[in-house]
Design goal:
single chain, 242 residues, alpha/beta, TIM Barrel, 7-stranded parallel β-sheet, 11 helices, globular
Length: 242
C-alpha cells in the first residue's frame, strides 16, 4: 500500500526505459489497483508486464470494495494471491486462497501464489509442514499448473531486513518443486517458476538467484526505489543468462 497515482507514474517512468533494455528475464510490476489503468497505458507496447496485488474469487456481485477477475482481465496478466499480509491482517485461509487461484486461472490470469512460514512456526520446526499444507491446499482441485507462479516468502523475513540465506531459500523451494511434482508430475512441475521473496535487495539478490531451484524474486520494499529495483533485475538477468 504505497504510492499515489502521481507517485506511481513517476516511478514507472523512471523504470520503463531502463527495464526495457534488460533482456532474458520477465519483468512484472504490481502496483495498487488505482494505478493499473494508467500504468497499462504507459507500458503499452513494452516488454514490462502488469499484475494486481490481490483479487476476489467471485466474478461480480454485492461484494463492496472487492475487485473481481473480470475487472482485472483488461488491465493486467498477473495477480498476487495468498500474500502473508492478506493471510495475517485479513484472515484469508487456504480455502479462500484456493478459490482465488482457481478463479484467476479460469479467467486467464496468472496467479502468483505466495506461501511461507511465520517465525514461531520456523522455530518450532514446523516450516516444512506449513509449506506443504499451503501448497497442497492452495492448489487443490487443479488439473494443471500452467500459468502458475509460486513465491516462497518466509513471513519472518518480510520487511524485517532479515532475509533467509540462499541455501535456506533454495532448500524450501526445492520442497515446493517436489510437491508440485507430486500433484502434477515432474515435467509440469519443472515448468512452474518459483520465486523467493523476503527482504530482497540489490546486495543479496545474487545469493538467491544463483541457487538452482530459485527462478526469480518477488520484490517488496526495494521495488519502490528505481535504481535498487533495476539493479535486482539486471543482476538476475546476468546470472540467469549464463
Amino acid at each position: 500500500m504505497n504510492t499515489s497515482l502521481s507517485e506511481a507514474l513517476v516511478l514507472v517512468r523512471q523504470l520503463k526505459d531502463k527495464l526495457e533494455g534488460v533482456q532474458g528475464v520477465e519483468k512484472v510490476l504490481c502496483p495498487p489497483f488505482i494505478s493499473l489503468a494508467l500504468l497499462r497505458e504507459v507500458l503499452q507496447g513494452s516488454t514490462i508486464g502488469l499484475g494486481a496485488q490481490n483479487m476476489f474469487f467471485q466474478e461480480k456481485g454485492a461484494y463492496t470494495g472487492e475487485v473481481s477477475p473480470l475487472m482485472l482481465q483488461d488491465l493486467c496478466t498477473y495477480v498476487i494471491l495468498g500474500h502473508s499480509e492478506r493471510r495475517q491482517y485479513f484472515a484469508e485461509d487456504d480455502g479462500m486462497i484456493n478459490q482465488k487461484v482457481r478463479s484467476a486461472l479460469k479467467w486467464r490470469l496468472n496467479p502468483i501464489l505466495c506461501v511461507g512460514e511465520r517465525l514461531a512456526e520456523k522455530e518450532q520446526g514446523q516450516a516444512e509442514a506449513v509449506i506443504t499444507r499451503q501448497v497442497r491446499a492452495g492448489l487443490s482441485g487443479l488439473d494443471s499448473p500452467e500459468g502458475l507462479v509460486v513465491a516462497y516468502e518466509p513471513v519472518w523475513a518480510i520487511g524485517t531486513g532479515k532475509a533467509a540465506t540462499g541455501e535456506e531459500a533454495n532448500k524450501t523451494i526445492g520442497l515446493i518443486r517436489r510437491l508440485l511434482a507430486e500433484l502434477f508430475g515432474t515435467p509440469k512441475a519443472e515448468a512452474v517458476r518459483i520465486q523467493y521473496g523476503g527482504s530482497v535487495n540489490g546486495k543479496n539478490i545474487a545469493e538467491f538467484i544463483s541457487q538452482p531451484h530459485i527462478d526469480g524474486a518477488l520484490v517488496g520494499g526495494a521495488s519502490l526505489n528505481a535504481e535498487e529495483f533495476l539493479s535486482i533485475v539486471e543482476q538476475t538477468a546476468a546470472i540467469k543468462g549464463r
